[in-house]
Amino acid sequence: MRFNIGDAVVDVVPDLECFPIPAARLLPTADLSSLAEHREWLEPDHVDFGRDAILLGMHALLLRLPGLTILVDACIGEDKQRPVHPAWHQRHASGFLDRLAALGVAPEDVDVVFCTHLHADHVGWNTRLLDGRWVPTFPRARYLIGRRELAFWQARAEPGLGYGSFVDSVQPLLEADRVTLVDDGEEIAPGVTLLPLPGHTEGQMGLRVRRGAACAVFCGDAVHSPVQVLRPEWSSGPCTHPLEAAATRRRLLECAAEEDILLVPAHFRRCGCTRIRRRGDGFRPVLGAG
Ligand SMILES: [Zn+2]
């Protein structure tokens, strides 16, 4: 799946094509039966109504600007110990780096890895196992991590944090001196600015990309699924601050609808992106780059 933001090209690079999560776990306050009128387009890609499950894609977003290759969010990775999620646990031969290679990108071609936040499904490919040690997967890249996000995780650093992902996928980058701490509002490249999206985690940030008249926001887990466009008040179970997450989501959707901004969430299956239109006093997604 490929789309453009002006002269920038974005490819969706799947790591795990479909990850079903019980709605009660991902969106504890959700009532999927209230979405019956949308069933026709939510199935089969986004919701499994029969199993009461939300279907997420686990993928990275490869953003190529003239002279700069950025990987946004690093999915699950391989060889990681994640027994809590069997589909994430001790993965081998996932084909992720082959899919990147098929797009003409070797690990050493990636200039920047940007983690919107530090949950286990956004940092996995930060590192890979080499001779029993975790090393940066992208050896030339600067890894951009939000200062507030990192401080939050470091303050809680215990071995099981994030299913162990902080220890195997973030700590080794710090030790290898590959991390650049970044702050809200910072411009990391011409037209590419960091945008605060707090609530899902303490310091989640998005990437606002403006190229000519085109504008997109890589918005991480501010919106997990198209159902949260229809029901912005449904925050996710893993959200650190659910009410703040809902307020952030509503603000983001309002802004996307007003300014015709393309949203690029981390987990939308198939399309990888969506435009937002007003619907009564709420919103509806128009999936794809349109
Ligand atoms: Zn996620």
Structural commentary:
This protein is an alpha+beta fold. The chain has one domain: Ribonuclease Z/Hydroxyacylglutathione hydrolase-like (Metallo-beta-lactamase, Chain A). The chain contains 9 helices and 17 strands. It has helices at residues 23-26, 39-42, 96-102, 120-123, 147-155, 165-169, 171-175, 227-230, 242-259, and strands at residues 2-5, 8-22, 47-48, 53-65, 68-72, 112-114, 127-130, 133-136, 142-146, 179-182, 187-189, 192-196, 205-211, 214-220, 262-265, 274-279, 282-287. The strands form 4 sheets. Strands 1, 2, 3, 4, 5, 6, 9 and 10 form an 8-stranded mixed β-sheet that branches. Strands 11-12-13-14-15 form a 5-stranded mixed β-sheet, with no helix packed on it. A two-stranded antiparallel sheet has the order 7-8. A hairpin with a 4-residue loop joins strand 3 and strand 4. The longest helix has 18 residues, at 242-259. The chain is globular. The chain starts with a strand and ends with a strand. The model has no long low-confidence stretch (mean pLDDT 95). Bound molecules: zinc ion. Zinc ion (ZN) is lined by residues 119, 121-122, 221, 266-267. It comes from Teichococcus oryzae. Pfam families: Lactamase_B (PF00753). Residues 57-267 form the Metallo-beta-lactamase domain. One of its GO terms (molecular function) is hydrolase activity. This is MBL fold metallo-hydrolase.
